[in-house]
Amino acid sequence: MLLRRPFRFRGCLVTKSQQRRAHTASIIPVTTHDHTLRDFFDQPHKPLLRGTNVPIGLLGYPQIASPESFVPVTAATMARANYIVRRIIQAGNNEGERMRIVKNIDRLSDLLCGVIDMAELIRHTHPERAWVDAANQAYDTLCEYMNHLNTNVDLARALDDFMASPSFKNLPMEAKQTAWIFKHDFDKSGVHLPIHQRQKFVELSSNIISLGRDFLQGLGAEKKPIMLFTKDCEGVPETPRLWQLYSVKRGLRSRVSVEPNSAEARRVLKHSTNEEARKKVYVSQNASSNEQIQVLEQLLRDRAELAVLVGRQSYGEMLLHDKMGKKPEHVHEFLGSLLEFSRPRALAALNDVKQAKKRSQGLSYLPEIYAWDREAYFPSKSLEPPIPLPRLTPGLALCAFSRLLKHIYGISCEPADVERGEVWHDDVRKVNIVDESEGIIGWIYLDLFYREGKAGGATHYTLRCSRRVDDDDAANDFLPSDHGRELTPDLEERLVIRSESHVTPGRDGSHQRPVAAISCDFDAN
After folding, report:
1. Closest Cα to residue 118, out of 193, 194, 198, 60?
2. Is residue 137 within 8 Å of 71, Cβ to Cβ?
3. Other Cβ atoms within 10 Å of 470 Cβ, number
4. What is the pLDDT of residues 208-232, one digit of tens each?
5. What is the pTM of this model?
6. What is the DSSP string of 177-198?
7. Which residues are CB-contacts of 236 (< 8 A; sequence separation ≥ 6)?
8. C-alpha torsion angle, residues 59, 62, 68, 73 (rounded to 10)
9. Is residue 33 a contact partner of residue 406, using CB atoms and an 8 Å limit?
């Protein structure tokens, strides 16, 4: 099950003479390819469309051509998954089928996660409400189905029995490691619990997904307008572009109503010498409705109940026990040490800010610094790097990353065309991941820039994993008695997202190449 030949790391295993030559060598010159990749992200961009005027479907899947497509695709995916589940459970003492259990669970995971991860991407990034709502519904439905599988005693027992048998030792190392990952997922989901507790696990897990979505969507809800008066605009520079503030400062109006996150409000927060005005804007920007607070509190209660259900003291412990941090105490220790390391410089910077506020307000003492003072007084002086540096743009960063991969692993990024309907916004760029000997080995969609309604932060989505597919043996998921099945071969062809089958010269079998997406919220200006 090794998906790629061992990579060729070229950075350290060299002779001393080679090290000397490398040390004195000039910087690798920038190529036309590097300029093209940089400009692909930094210059005004419209998708390079190829093909016909008929939309191909999101991410190149014709099954997802409209928001309404998610409903039949979700139903067909679960129906197809049921046949794989049945095959795993009924493997029994058939040695050939037992040897395929890990492979079949991997296929099951790939089938479900391919749609779940795509739905998660679309619900967080698509600009159209219809797409977001459809993706949310598909995500909730499939995650609940997945939670049922994770608590399926028969499915877990089939894997446990096989892992306890002598035949398990005959699997390749990678397959054994995959089996242990699946076993861990079953154990983490409480498959060992009584039936009523397993049902509660599914219920709580589904609630947590739903409440988490509601909370995140609520962050973008409209907030109550702020009333700004003439005294609130003291110290705010005039600009006709922000005509509402301009009219108040000039006495043309006695007051104006603005949105908390509007340009007018942000200008008051940064420039107003009236502390109460800055406080008013800050509090309005960060206020939450009672409904939003209730959603958050219920989310925290359900997380705590779920953790206790599976034998953990807290939700943090439940999440961390199989991660690098292992325990909440380790995270607190790390944050504490980071705080102690940063404290001297932070206190020095805070003192500079207090001095700036003191001078600005003509005070004889060092004043307190509040959250609404940040925009007005931070930083009190320019924080320049010790050496001159060029402006770091997304294109320059991707170009440098591609050059690094090229000279270490022989892998690089190159701009890729998209077909009509393949991406969810014109901001999205697609790059080919190219191996110097194998050609294109995968793709990444990059949605890097901020826009209204898009989830903030940086997120990575694995839309399709890499795996060998020519030995899937999918035809044997069905029994002769399934001849009149509801999911007919025609429906499966039209509605189920199928594995890619790519043959690379020099590699055994055919493989599915990976697809990933990265979402960020960089400033496009």
Report:
1. 60
2. yes
3. 13
4. 999 998 888 887 777 889 998 888 8
5. 0.81
6. HHHHHHHHHHHHTTTTS-HHHH
7. 245, 249, 267, 268, 271, 272
8. -90
9. no
